[in-house]
Design brief:
Protein name: Nuclear transport factor 2 family protein
Radius of gyration: 16 Å
Pfam families: SnoaL_2
Number of helices: 3
Shape: globular
CATH topology: Nuclear Transport Factor 2, Chain: A
InterPro entries: NTF2-like_dom_sf, SnoaL-like
Organism: Leptobacterium flavescens
Oligomer: single chain
Length: about 140
Amino acid sequence: MNTGNHKPSDQIKQEDSLKTMVEAYYRLNIKVFQKNSTKEDIDAIFELFTDDFEYNHPKYGGLYTRDVLYRGYVNNQKNGGYDGSVKDVRVENMIIGLNCVAVSRRYITGNARGETEEGELQMTLFEFRDGKISRIMEYW
């Protein structure tokens, strides 16, 4: 009888790997969001993605290919869009499934007075293939 408490070691390894990838994605994004970030910081994020990666954010423009999203990151960086106001990300919950992770999280922002504020709760779904992120779906 399965009590639900035992997971095969392969499943545990996959869950750890997916969780590590999501954590790396957020950590690298926080680095890019700082004033002194570099194009190499952006490149580090995109190393996590498959060649045919897609980013889907229906509320803000819909579907973006890897190349379009990359150009958006580079343009934001060149235009001063990454000003250091986003200080951190707080993951509230992470549900790991078969080759996917659903995340609820908040960005932590700061102001010139050094005060921080928690952003709204947002949901993101990550899909994985061949050890990389193949799709990100934003539901906020």
